[in-house]
Specification:
Blueprint (H helix, E strand, L loop, with lengths): L1 H15 L6 H7 L39 E4 L6 E10 L5 E9 L4 E5 L6 E5 L5 E6 L2 E6 L4 E4 L9 E3 L4 H6 L6 E3 L5 E8 L5 E6 L6 E6 L9 E8 L4 E4 L7 E8 L5 E8 L4 E8 L5 E8 L10 E3 L5 E6 L6 E6 L5 E3 L7 E8 L4 E6 L8 E6 L5 E3 L6 E6 L5 E8 L2 E13 L3 E11 L2 H9 L5 E7 L5 E7 L10 E6 L18 H8 L3 E6 L8 H5 L7 H15 L4 E11 L1 H11 L7 E5 L10 H8 L6 H5 L13 E7 L8 H12 L5 E5 L13 H17 L7
Parallel strand pairs: 34-35, 34-36, 36-37, 37-38, 38-39
Antiparallel strand pairs: 1-2, 2-3, 3-4, 5-6, 6-7, 7-8, 9-11, 10-11, 11-14, 12-13, 14-15, 16-17, 17-18, 18-19, 20-21, 21-22, 22-23, 24-25, 25-26, 26-27, 28-29, 29-30, 30-31, 32-33, 33-35
Helix pairs in contact: 2-12
Length: about 725
């Protein structure tokens, strides 16, 4: 009897002997830091002598300190550009003081004076430096030491040359708005006239009387900057203006072909459902149509465009046939090939081997949450899988595509890093063989065992529309099916996103902390998320929030029927779009969700920027119901549970205005709520030195424990 008692007690003893995960472990100590791995291709190259940057002095003898970034000149190994005293601007932009270092004579020359500059670049031929200063494009000639102002009309909140305005940087995902031609004879650059764009202001709480920050932010339905593309001839110091249909349009990209005079201007209408590629002559600005794509919803913009060295073809990805696939077209319009096919999505193009005419790419296969590496030829006739099975494979190739470094993990297993060789056999085809394992995360794996990290399970949940949703579930430590546990949904849910991914890190250390305290943690990718084809992703068109929250409600109702779920304690949390979803969960989902935490949420798409919002919703004038029917602000009277809203007051992306308007609606509906705001913090609401990160996650965790905890959870 005593032996049987001890055997029954062993699982409980094993659980109790694991270390408790703390917020300090997660957000301060780095307890679960990934093992450092030194991975290389082992190709012998002469090691460059280590530079002692701290000893460098400028012309006046002043030490500049260690640079924040060192930019090498590819065509002249002696030249390096140093960025120091860098400060961030928005998500993808920063400005710095610039220095040109010449290793031949150890000279150090300041470029641009004491005014900080953006986007410094060497010209392809190594003769010039380009950079943006005070909204103007500048050109420094290295041999003569002279500086030319390519533009002179730049002015804050009026004219921007060579750098993006806020909404282009955020939504078209680039900041440097100029490109050198392949041989360095031309620079193509954007000119933004944002004088007609409405300003948004934020109070910065930085002194006795505060200060006011104003910048141009076009909200849904607002006017955009007027966009021009100019092409500067470096040798002649002359300019040509690219010719295209003007008006209410976007230019989301410009790219050079391998021809030094052929610039491709990407043109889109405001609804973003028509994309044209215009072949533009650098000398004259005259253009002709190279490619056109139309979509009944919208066309996704990305950087998956390669203009090949043969000067005859270009590669790109498109959803034109329902799933994202690879295409090879001819510049003369005669060749049009679809290279990959099937009900599966290309998620990344890893490399284009033009010598052997092969394309290496990643597929969301065999399931949408997995990733595997494939290769196909330029005809799309011979395709081979270089990795297989369930899991997440991320790769990095060497220059000649003969080897790649493979980073493999799955949702429960930290990454293994290995060196793989690409084998080409005329009979058997192309395969990969492992040469070396660089690391298998032994320290992290031991730490996870020490702290009793739980195993995550994938699940498939039917919704009320006939679709099946992908999800994952993390059960509490010491799970007992005879008990009832509270549930926390962790959701983002925005267009094309994915949280249900078979990679380590998809379930966070914070999720494990909650599970250790007795919570069931789940994530469900709703309608509108990515890698399941165009129709699944674009069903939410013109009605953001509607189908997404209905799916979350369906999933919550499904889980509530499980015997070990406390159906009175089901919560939802999210950040940004996820905060929008959490706010809908506690309003439109009031019958099933009893608590929600919304961090930096959009509460009405009328308050968000026009490029993102109108891509999915058109304008408020065209689609008023789509904006208002699913805005949490208009459903606050439905709330029955607890609601916590958190925001940074200096959020340049999702404005603090979203929180204030939500709170006004809550007050009007006489709904009790809790809120927290972080002064001068942006959309990330982060900070280690001032304790912001730890404070935010502590507050959120403690609130969830107090509001959603039951007799089977730990405080």
């Amino acid at each position: 009897m005593r032996t049987l008692f001890l055997l029954l007690l062993l699982p409980a003893l094993a659980w109790s002997q694991t270390k408790s995960i703390t917020l300090e472990d997660v957000y301060k100590k780095g307890t679960f830091r990934t093992d450092a791995v030194m991975a290389s291709f082992g190709e012998s190259k002469a090691a460059a002598p280590a530079m002692q940057w701290d000893r460098l002095t400028d012309a006046s003898g002043k030490k500049i300190g260690r640079p924040d970034e060192v930019i090498a000149c590819e065509s002249n190994s002696a030249l390096q550009l140093l960025r120091i005293k860098t400060e961030p601007i928005y998500r993808r932009s920063s400005k710095s003081l610039l220095y040109l270092f010449n290793a031949k004579d150890s000279s150090l020359l300041q470029i641009g004076g004491d005014t900080k500059s953006l986007h410094p670049q060497f010209s392809p031929d190594g003769q010039h430096l380009s950079y943006i200063q005070s909204n103007n494009l500048m050109l420094y000639t290295i041999a003569t030491g002279t500086t030319t102002a390519v533009t002179t009309d730049g002015k804050w909140n009026y004219i921007i040359n060579g750098n993006c305005d806020w909404v282009y940087e955020e939504e078209f995902e680039f900041s440097r708005a100029y490109e050198w031609s392949p041989k360095g004879n031309y620079i193509a650059y954007y000119r933004f006239d944002e004088s007609g764009v409405k300003e948004f202001n934020m109070t910065m709480y930085d002194n006795a009387h505060n200060s006011d920050y104003r910048y141009k932010y076009p909200k849904a339905g607002d006017d955009n900057s007027a966009i021009e593309i100019h092409i500067y001839d470096v040798n002649k110091a002359s300019k040509a203006k690219a010719q295209y249909e003007t008006g209410d349009i976007y230019i989301p990209r410009i790219k050079w072909t391998t021809d030094d005079r052929q610039l491709i201007v990407f043109w889109m209408n405001r609804h973003q459902n028509v994309l044209k590629l215009l072949s533009t002559d650098a000398a004259t600005g005259k253009s002709s149509l190279l490619y056109e794509e139309k979509n009944k919803y919208f066309v996704e913009i990305n950087d998956d465009w390669w203009f090949l060295k043969d000067a005859k073809h270009y590669l790109f990805t498109s959803e034109m046939n329902g799933y994202r696939h690879l295409y090879l077209y001819g510049l003369d319009g005669t060749t049009k090939k679809q290279l990959t096919k099937g009900n599966v999505e290309v998620t990344e193009v890893n490399g284009v081997d033009e010598v052997n005419k092969r394309i290496f790419y990643t597929l969301a296969w065999p399931r949408p949450m997995d990733r595997n590496l494939f290769v196909t030829d330029f005809n799309g006739e011979k395709t081979y899988a270089l990795t297989q099975g369930e899991g997440w494979n991320r790769v990095s190739f060497n220059d000649d595509f003969s080897k790649f470094i493979l980073y493999y993990s799955n949702i429960n297993t930290p990454q293994t890093v290995s060196l793989q060789q690409v084998l080409v056999d005329k009979k058997k085809g192309i395969s990969a063989v492992q040469e070396k394992v660089f690391g298998e995360s032994p320290k992290l794996k031991a730490t996870l065992r020490e702290y009793g990290f739980g195993a995550v399970e994938f699940m498939r949940i039917p919704n009320s529309k006939g679709d099946t949703l992908n999800g994952w579930m993390l059960k509490p430590a010491g799970f007992d099916a005879a008990k009832k546990y509270p549930v926390l949904f962790c959701n983002y849910g925005g267009p094309g996103s994915q949280q249900v991914a078979n990679r380590f890190g998809a379930v966070s250390n914070w999720h494990q902390l909650l599970a250790q305290k007795g919570f069931i943690v789940v994530s469900v990718d709703n309608t509108g998320t990515g890698y399941r084809g165009e129709e699944f992703k674009k069903k939410t068109y013109l009605q953001l929030g509607k189908l997404e929250i209905e799916d979350q409600i369906d999933a919550a109702n499904f889980l509530a029927k499980l015997p070990w779920v406390d159906k009175a304690k089901i919560g939802h949390w999210g950040w940004s779009y996820g905060g929008f979803m959490s706010s809908l969960a506690i309003t439109k989902g009031a019958g099933i969700f009893s608590a929600a935490v919304a961090v930096a949420p959009v509460t009405s798409w009328r308050f968000y920027d026009n490029i993102y919002t109108e891509r999915y919703m058109q304008t408020p004038k065209e689609n008023p119901g789509g904006y208002d029917d699913n805005s949490p602000i208009n459903h606050t009277d439905k709330i029955k549970g607890k609601y916590l809203i958190i925001h940074g007051t200096a959020d340049d992306n999702v404005h603090f205005q979203n929180a204030t308007q939500m709170i006004s609606a809550l007050v009007k509906s006489n709904i009790d709520f809790e809120s927290a705001y972080y002064p001068n913090k942006n959309h990330g609401i982060s900070g280690m030195a001032d304790n912001t990160t730890f404070h935010l996650w502590s507050k959120k965790t403690n609130w969830i424990l107090n509001v959603l905890g039951n007799e089977n959870t730990l405080r």
